Amino acid sequence: MPAGIKSLRQYLKFVDIVLEVADARLPAASRYPDLGTILGNRTRILVLTRADLADPVATARWLEVFQAGGTPAVAVNARTGEGVRALRQQMAGTAKEKRGKLAQKGLRARPLRVMALGIPNVGKSSLLNRLAGRGAARTGDRPGITRGPQWIRIEGNMELLDTPGVLWSHWQEPGTALWLGAIGCAPEGILPVTEIANLVGEFLLGKAPEVLVTRYGITRQEAEGANLLEAIGRRRGYLLPGGIVDQEKTALALVNDFRAGYLGRFTLELP
Ligand SMILES: Nc1nc2c(ncn2[C@@H]2O[C@H](COP(=O)(O)OP(=O)(O)OP(=O)(O)O)[C@@H](O)[C@H]2O)c(=O)[nH]1
Ligand SMILES: [Mg+2]
């Protein structure tokens, strides 16, 4: 278990619901493998963020799979709040249960405490801001924005706990790291951006080569050729002195376009 998770464990005893936040484009690989063992029987709701960037058909399938496996799951756009209403409904059920239990013990009702947990940059703070109804937590388009656990107190009957993103140790497994890099959830500066770009390029070539043609003004032949980055860089004029293509700059452009959804809505793994 990563140290970051260990240090968050102490908060678990204070919270009623854990929102496990993962990315809809990578619903399995962006989750924690054994969170269940840490959470015990605490209520967990899986929230897939960036549903706006994922393939809606794939997202529906994933939600079914998770739900069939006994994990309540919802998909949201944590930026705009789409889907958050369904999440609130899920939470309301748990809230009622908790109130019932407290009443049985003769205890006074207290605000429902909700904690968000997940890998870096996955949208935890954005999600809590939507639940709070205001921009209480700082967000940003790179990992490592939230530095430490932080309570967000809101009017009404909820208290929210934002936490810093923590990567599970399995993230460096071959086949996982680059995909997490592709969705912007791996630590910056560790993975070569050209490798991430090549993976994204390969994926797009298999799925929707025409988006490369239209977005970058290259020919189908160039898109399918041996060096996609070379073709895009040349077309864009991303050149270094001597006229050679700036591979890094080109790779970053492709990866950023993919992350922002300019190339379309894609889910990178299917159930
Ligand atoms: N398109 C889209 N962007 C999102 C969504 N959720 C979050 N974002 C963006 O993703 C970036 C990261 O969001 P944060 O809320 O800061 O992520 P975090 O998990 O709190 O990140 P750390 O605190 O760094 O671990 C921001 O630029 C958000 O605007 C979503 O559902 N759709
Ligand atoms: Mg954050």
From TrEMBL:
Source superkingdom: Bacteria
Gene3D superfamilies in the record: 1.10.1580.10, P-loop containing nucleotide triphosphate hydrolases
Lineage: Bacteria, Bacillati, Bacillota, Clostridia, Neomoorellales
Organism: Moorella mulderi DSM 14980
Major localisation: cytoplasm
Sequence similarity: Belongs to the TRAFAC class YlqF/YawG GTPase family. MTG1 subfamily.
Keyword Chloroplast carried by entry: no
GO CC terms of this entry: cytoplasm
InterPro entries: G_CP_dom, GTP-bd, GTP-bd_ortho_bundle_sf, GTP-bd_ribosome_bgen, GTPase_MTG1, P-loop_NTPase
Record keywords, A-Z: Cytoplasm, GTP-binding, Nucleotide-binding
The protein's name: Ribosome biogenesis GTPase A
Domain CP-type G: 5-169
Role this protein plays: Required for a late step of 50S ribosomal subunit assembly. Has GTPase activity.
Record SUPFAM superfamilies: P-loop containing nucleoside triphosphate hydrolases
